[in-house]
Amino acid sequence: MIGFYDYTVILTYLSLLSAVTGIGLAVAHHPLLAILCLMFSGLCDMFDGRVARTKKNRTAEQKGFGIQIDSLCDIVAFGILPAVITIVVCGSVWYAVLIAALYVLAGLIRLAYFNVTEELRQQETDECRKTYTGLPITSAALIFPFFFCFLDIFQRAAILHGALLVVMALTGASFVMPFHIRKPRSKEQWALLGIGLVIAAGCIFVWVRFRMRIVR
User: Fold this and answer.
1) Which of 58, 99, 146, 184 reaches 20 to 30 Å from 169, CA-CA?
2) What is the DSSP code (8-state) at residue 9?
3) Which residue ranges does UniProt annotate as crossing the membrane (predicted)?
């Protein structure tokens, strides 16, 4: 078979599988479960590069392959999956589809721009990147789950839909804005992981309450 299948790419593959599972759950009207898939994809993305760098004898082809599948996976997990969740939650109305489409487009542009600039940067220096230009698309793994933790606040569907679309529009716009964000250091990444676990617990709590209401 073509491609690579060693341990350095397993997390990226798992991230994609989780994202596709989340899309299926969203279409089946299980948005909270889809959000958990989004968070699992984010967890895999957080560690895939670190795992890949443990293999010191990777060939140039293996490194290039890893970079390509990472970006391809990111557009599905953090671009298409949140868009599908939003469209399903908002009832497939035209303005929700439009905002979701623009969100995915912004994510695609951001990933392509990052790939090009990163390739040029690596030709000039071996130093690790210290800042990002624009909001990383992987931030969707925390932004949207955090929003869904507060579903009980939105008593009316129109308010919920409007708030979700505003979050998506602002997040997408932030992908292509030319501001700089410092790349999280190791300790900060662990802090983000802790925050993610708290948010995941909040989403599970909301899902359990939702299921209990259906049973009643």
Assistant:
1) 184
2) G
3) 7-27, 64-87, 93-113, 134-153, 159-178, 190-210
Dihedral over Cα of 124, 127, 128, 132: its sign: negative
7-215: which CATH topology? Four Helix Bundle (Hemerythrin (Met), subunit A) (1.20.120)
DSSP for 97-166?
HHHHHHHHHHHHHHHHHHHHHHHHHHHH--SPP-EEES--GGGHHHHHHHHHTTGGG--SHHHHHHHHHH
Read off the tokens for 206.
């909301």
The whole model's pTM is what? 0.91
Q: Where are the domains of the chain?
A: 7-215
List residues bridging with 181 in a β-sheet: 132
Q: Give 21: exposed, middle or buried? Use CB within 10 Å, 0-12, 13-18, 19+.
A: middle
- 51 backbone φψ class: left, alpha, beta (φ>0; ψ -120 to 50): alpha
Q: Residue type for 21, please?
A: T
Average pLDDT, the chain: 88
